[in-house]
Amino acid sequence: MKNFAYAARPLMEDFFSTLVFVVLNALHVDVRIAVACAAAIGVAQVAWRLVRRQPVAALQWMSLGLVLVFGAASYFTHDPRFVMVKPSIIYVVVGGAMLQKGWMLRYMPPIAQGHGDRLMTAFGYVWAGLMFVSAIANAVVAVAYTAHWTAFIAIFPLASKVVLFLIQYVVVRMAVVRSVRAQMAAA
Description:
Elements: H1 2-26, H2 31-51, H3 58-77, H4 80-97, H5 117-144, H6 149-186
Helix pairs in contact: 1-2, 1-3, 2-3, 3-4, 4-5, 5-6
């Protein structure tokens, strides 16, 4: 469980401000309040890392940017179709960022580093693919099945990512344990 928490923590940090905006928006909190809360949290996270002289990950910068840009767009348009299609735009942007080779390596615990790097890199591309599939699925549901969009957005994005995360965790853990044991046996 400790390794699971180690792997999940940075991902949650990177997307925390975005998650705050999504949750507040889903709870029908006034868009101005949702944008302000998410932006304040995102800015505070980045400022905290900068003050502590820690690097700010690209996904964390992107998450903050998405909250600011799409939050402002939601505020000014008040168009429900934009709100419905907005996740597709976010998924495409996130998927594009995830095409960076090796972006997932920072999520590996120190003991696993060097033992599952190729597998983690491959899963980085799988995650990018999931983001692109999510973008297409969201756009189709938002445009063609508008009445079902709320149920879709409440279930599919989270469920698909949790399932992929769990598959990745089990597969990478098994491969790393095998590699560490093989290295110990050879030594």
